[in-house]
Design brief:
The structure holds 2 protein chains of 2 kinds.
Chain A (H helix, E strand, L loop, with lengths): L2 H20 L4 H16 L8 H20 L2 H4 L2 H23 L2 H4 L7 H21 L4 H19 L1 H14 L17 H16 L8 H8 L13 H8 L8 H25 L5 H4 L5 H32 L17 H7 L2 H22 L5 H20 L3 H32 L2 H27 L3 H11 L5
Chain B lengths: L2 H24 L28 H4 L7 H7 L12 E6 L2 H4 L9 H7 L3 E2 L2 E7 L7 H11 L6 E6 L13 H4 L2 H11 L21 H20 L37 H10 L4 E5 L20 H18 L2 E4 L18 H20 L1
Parallel strand pairs in B: 1-3, 1-4, 4-5, 5-6
Antiparallel strand pairs in B: 2-3
Helix pairs in contact in B: 5-12, 6-10
Classes of the chains: A mainly alpha, B alpha/beta.
Chain lengths: 478, 366
């Protein structure tokens, strides 16, 4: 995301706020319209013909299909949902018609396909939608099926070999040479976050924790444009509550939104972009000549990734506020936390909460239930390693991301066991405030360094290069 | 909270911005030799000037702020305690060291010879800059005087002398005030455009490029210090061997380049500028091709007649002006040039440095 895009998104949000503060009854439609246009506009260009048009259509279709899998029968027959679907089709056709209005490379990254192709594609999607509407039920079978579909798409996007095959297949489909296919050809804007939101709606519907929502509320939640690219991951009931709240143009929220935007823009475009020049990267990793400078570059990376992501989150929250939706916080000074558990409770918080709710907790419960003989230590070890391993793999199915996840899994396990061991001794320390403060300071430095060392694996493309930098960091040459 | 509040916030911000800019515009322009820099304090000074077109890979880039360039150079570091003799080497890209590591440049090779004079080590400073113009060299010389050279080594070539080349160097073109100062003081006879100094250019907005460049220069100091890299070395096309059958040099046709077309007066200015500091003028080595049409041209740059005439003029000038001069034009074999008829490989630089060192020692030790 560049500063121009950010400013355009802010302007769109201010306009949205102005209109909805006057005509609150059209808010849902307007939100759907602006978010739909945004996902087409933000989708990056790709070398495969028309893919930048079809992937946003895919996002919309996936969301509608996901809703059909979870919706009650009476909801499916509700006319308002049908109108929402028609409205979405209309929006897609408007984007497609940009090809003929000479706006093809303004609304989308390249010219949309011919209208006949679009109509055929929409017809096919409508057939799938009708079939799902007719047969799908919010039961285990359909939800598992939907989950498998998401997982397959995820694997195609994140496993380099599968991405390559996907690219070859798509290139063949549109009559392009497959010789130029690359694993980087398919870049689906915000797919991971869309998947997180869909899985949340399925799981909470399945467990009965969440009522059914209208198609418009669901789509608006899934594709809400300020958070489509990188979160935060909101929860549907909370989002809907905000999305229906009346908007007052100049309220305290307006001032807070601009404060968050200014802070976010400064963090991302001034601090993070500046630190990019110094931060560890695949090029300089192989060139560093001394231990001291290795640490400087690793620390620069640690702060760069924090300010980039936290800045982006501030911008997303600011734009969300302008649109009347208070997105959840994602970062709360994570590098000032005194242990790794606290770090993860304050770093990319909505992702951590999502994994805790939909993987860690259910998996822990299952282990406790099915393997009663397992000690607490073993359960913590297995659940932390698997959760963090999955979080690592979510960034990309590569050995480095996996190792980064396992590094944190190991850290969390050690932290958990150490905290247990320390519990009886903490009372003594708490009686001595100076000692407590010193220990807190030491632990914060230790935690930050542990996290910073983990970034070496995250920032670099191969384990060989990562170990080389690790060696440099500890004076072991390269 | 209502619209009035937001309007007031906006108005106050605008007012503060305007006041700040007015103060900035009213301040007199300053050339500050002691410019703030992380170089020579947090990180070592660079062994050659910042220059480059690929900053993210070379940790180096071109800027026009001469003070910032000097502040980033090791020449502005505190003097060494061993009382070393400081020898400044000026010239074009062949001195700066295109396709060379900083150790491989002429200054780097001379330093590796560990020369000394009367028990004082010689320390060579690479003050070359990769554009060809004697006026640009004079501008850098003028600015470098504060760093107390014990001797000056000035490498040049015919291509640095045509009138039209003088301000073609972006570094010179973007520092008209510096050029004009030399032009006026030493009657160099150049037509220098007025510096772009309207009100707008003095505001924060007008200075945004210079400010951003200064910040980037400091930032790139860190990866540069961490890696020692200040240039990328891509595969290159060797300098043209077979040449066009073209007798012309710019618009000049044989048999003679007219008087006043070349800025020979720059060498006299250089001599005056340095006062009593020894100056050794060197006609730098060029590639002498033996390919197609080499009977007409020495290389891509020079037709034989023009270059021969230039060499003779340099000899005459050195005698007339009493400037110490070395004509090293054929000191390097043609095979030892890289992507240009003036860029040598490291082996050639080493040989050149060794041969030149005798001349340097003769100058500096007497």
């Amino acid at each position: 995301m560049v500063i121009t895009e950010t400013l355009i998104m802010v302007l769109a949000a201010v306009l949205f706020r102005f209109l909805t503060s006057r005509f609150n009854n059209i808010r849902g439609w307007l939100l759907l319209g602006v978010s739909t246009m945004a996902i087409f506009w933000l989708q990056p260009a790709m070398p495969i013909r028309f893919l930048e048009f079809w992937l946003p259509v895919g996002t919309l279709a996936l969301t509608v299909f996901a809703w059909l899998v979870t919706a009650d029968t009476d909801q499916k027959s509700d006319r308002s949902n049908l109108w929402t679907a028609f409205f979405m089709v209309g929006l897609v056709l408007i984007v497609a018609s940009a090809r003929y209005a000479g706006l093809g490379e303004i609304i989308t990254a390249s010219r949309p396909p011919q209208i006949s192709q679009v109509l055929f594609g929409l017809f096919m999607l409508a057939l799938v939608g009708l079939a799902l509407g007719r047969f799908a039920r919010p039961g285990r079978f359909w939800l598992m099926g939907a989950m498998i579909v998401l997982l397959l798409i995820f694997l195609i996007l994140k496993v380099p070999q599968f991405s390559l095959w996907g690219s070859i297949a798509l290139r063949s489909l549109v009559g392009q040479s497959s010789a130029a296919a690359s694993p980087f050809d398919i870049r689906w804007l915000g797919f991971s976050y869309v998947a997180f939101r869909l899985i949340h709606t399925w799981q909470d519907r399945k467990s009965g924790r969440m009522e059914a929502y209208s198609l418009m509320d669901t789509v608006n939640y899934v594709i809400f444009y300020p958070s489509i690219t990188a979160g935060p991951i909101d929860r549907l009931p909370r989002f809907v509550k905000d999305a229906h709240k009346p908007i007052i143009m100049f309220s305290t929220e307006f001032g807070k939104a601009f404060y968050r935007l200014i802070v976010g823009i400064f963090k991302k475009f001034a601090i993070a972009n500046t630190l990019t020049l110094l931060a560890l990267n695949p090029l300089n990793a192989g060139q560093i000549q001394s231990t001291g400078w290795s640490w400087v570059l690793v620390y620069a990376y640690a702060f760069q990734i924090y300010f980039d992501f936290a800045g982006y989150t501030d911008i997303a929250i600011g734009i969300g506020m302008l649109m009347g939706v208070t997105l959840p916080e994602n970062f709360k000074r994570p590098y000032l936390k005194s242990n790794l558990t606290q770090f993860w409770n304050n770093w990319h918080m909505t992702l951590t909460q999502w994994f805790r709710a939909y993987f860690y907790n259910p998996f822990t419960r299952r282990l406790r239930k099915n393997y009663r003989g397992l000690s607490v230590g073993w359960i913590v070890l297995i659940t932390q390693f698997s959760t963090m391993g999955l979080i690592g793999l979510w960034h990309g199915v590569t050995p480095n991301y996996l190792f980064w996840g396992l590094w944190h899994g190991l850290g969390l396990f050690i932290n958990n066991r150490f905290s247990d061991w320390m519990k009886p001794r903490t009372a003594v320390i708490q009686q001595r405030p100076v000692l407590q403060k010193m220990l807190d300071g030491f632990n914060t430095v230790l935690t930050f360094n542990f996290v910073a060392l983990g970034w070496v694996f995250f920032a670099l493309p191969s384990l060989d290069l990562s170990w080389r930098v690790f060696g440099q960091l500890f004076g072991l040459g390269g | 909270m209502h619209m009035k509040f937001f309007r007031n916030v906006l108005l106050k911000a605008l007012l503060l911005f305007l006041v700040f800019n007015l103060v900035l515009v009213s301040l007199p322009p300053v050339s500050n030799p002691e410019q703030l820099s992380i170089y020579n304090s947090l990180v070592p000074g660079r062994p050659r000037f910042p220059f480059g077109e690929n900053p993210q890979q070379a940790y180096n880039f071109s800027l026009y702020d001469v003070d910032a360039m000097f502040a980033a150079h090791r020449v502005s570091a505190p003097m060494r305690e061993d009382d070393a003799l400081r020898i400044f080497v000026f010239g074009d890209s062949s001195v700066w060291g295109t396709l060379q590591t900083s150790q491989g440049t002429l200054a780097g090779q001379l330093n590796q010879l560990n020369l000394s004079c009367n028990n004082r080590p010689l320390d060579f400073y690479n003050l070359g800059y990769p554009t060809i113009s004697v006026t640009k060299d004079l501008m850098l010389m003028e600015r470098s005087k504060v760093y107390q050279a014990d001797m000056v080594l000035w490498l040049t070539t015919l291509e640095a002398l045509p009138q039209e080349k003088q301000l073609a160097s972006p570094l010179a073109a973007n520092n008209p005030a510096r050029i004009e100062k030399i032009n006026a003081e030493y009657q160099l006879g150049l037509t220098v455009p007025d510096e772009y100094t309207n009100w707008w250019s003095k505001t924060l907005w007008g200075r945004r490029r210079a400010i951003a460049d200064w910040i980037r220069l400091q930032l790139y100091g860190i990866p540069w210090a961490a890696t020692g890299i200040d240039q990328v070395y891509p595969p290159y096309q060797p300098a043209a061997w077979d040449l066009e059958a073209n007798q012309n040099y710019y618009d000049f046709k044989p048999p003679e380049i007219p008087d006043g077309a070349l800025v020979y007066s720059a060498f006299e200015v250089g001599e005056k500028l340095w006062g009593g500091t020894p100056l050794l003028l060197v006609n730098e080595p060029i590639m002498v091709s033996s390919g197609e049409n080499s009977d007409i041209r020495y290389n891509y740059f020079y037709p034989r007649w023009a270059y021969d005439q230039y060499r003779q003029s340099m000899v005459d000038l050195s005698i007339d002006q009493d400037i110490d001069y070395v004509d090293a034009w054929d000191w390097v074999a043609a095979k030892d040039f890289t992507n240009s008829a003036i860029h040598m490989n490291a082996t050639a630089e080493a040989g050149f440095a060794e041969r030149l060192s005798a001349e340097v020692l003769m100058q500096v030790c007497h």
